[in-house]
Design goal:
By secondary structure, this protein is mostly helical. It is built from twelve helices and two strands. Helix content is about 70%, strand content about 0%. The protein starts with a strand and ends in a 13-residue tail after the last helix.
């Protein structure tokens, strides 16, 4: 349940949001994005592109994501969690810093620059703004609110990372509204990405780093899907290869994320 928790009770000021209520919040969050997309979106069923025009990108994605940011920011404000959400002072071992470094580098290399050069300035600018909105909105909801919900519930860092990432992946099943069964596979991949963004949070000590990595990552992934004629690029292969490589690294080194003084994740 939601209730007011004074600082002297558990050392954390603000209201408490239990995990069942957080799941309800996530459903509302997804409903805002999908509902607005259905309400004001442009039908792109006759196009091979996800965003064939600036109007489609704005109405199908930019406005819904903007509304989700307002919702998430309003919730953080109501909870009184801005101090916790903006700063996450839980260190990780030095090797983990290569997660955000590699993600940002590959996202920049993987951008389909040639294809974007053929698009209108307005479409490219809206794509960059969409990346910003996705990075801010999704990180605020899942690495901001979600991580702290599970952390306040007393879970170890390993389980905080696991459950917040699983919820992050599951919410993308809502994309089945427009993407069909492939959204299930997307949800599995997104869950691993959520874990990577959690590690960005640990490395940076602030939610701004995963916001940056997430935004660039999505811009890179979407950069070949805009315009009348979507165009794949070799850069996409880099993104896919890094995703696979990071999954392998996490499977091998997941127990060496925590500094020795904190112990292995649970």
């Amino acid at each position: 349940m939601l209730d007011k928790v004074e600082a002297e009770q558990d050392g954390r000021p603000g209201r408490r949001l239990s995990w069942p209520w957080f799941l309800l919040v996530v459903i509302v969050y997804a409903g805002i994005i999908q509902g607005l997309g259905l309400l004001i979106g442009v039908d792109t069923g006759d196009s091979d592109s996800a965003f064939p025009s600036t109007e489609a990108l704005v109405r199908n994605a930019l406005i819904p994501m903007g509304a989700s940011i307002v919702f998430a920011a309003g919730l953080v404000t109501w909870l009184g969690w801005w101090g916790e959400v903006l700063s996450y002072r839980t260190p990780a071992r030095s090797w983990v810093r290569w997660v955000p470094i590699s993600m940002i580098a590959v996202a920049l290399l993987g951008l389909n620059y040639g294809h974007l050069a053929d698009q209108s300035v307005s479409l490219v600018l809206c794509l960059l703004l969409l990346g910003l909105f996705v990075g801010v909105g999704e990180e605020l909801m899942f690495r901001g609110i979600g991580v702290h919900v599970f952390r306040r519930a007393g879970l170890t860092e390993g389980k905080v990372a696991l459950w917040s990432s699983l919820v992050f992946g599951l919410v993308h099943v809502s994309n089945a509204v427009g993407a069909g069964a492939q959204a299930i596979a997307q949800a599995l991949v997104v869950s691993t990405s959520g874990y990577f963004f959690y590690l960005c949070l640990r490395v940076g000590g602030t939610i701004l780093l995963p916001m940056l990595a997430h935004g660039l990552w999505d811009i890179s992934l979407i950069s070949h899907l805009v315009g009348d004629e979507p165009q794949a690029s070799l850069g996409m292969a880099l993104v896919i290869l890094l995703q696979v490589a990071l999954i392998i690294v996490l499977l091998v080194r997941r127990r060496t994320i925590e500094p020795a003084t904190l112990g292995a994740p649970g």
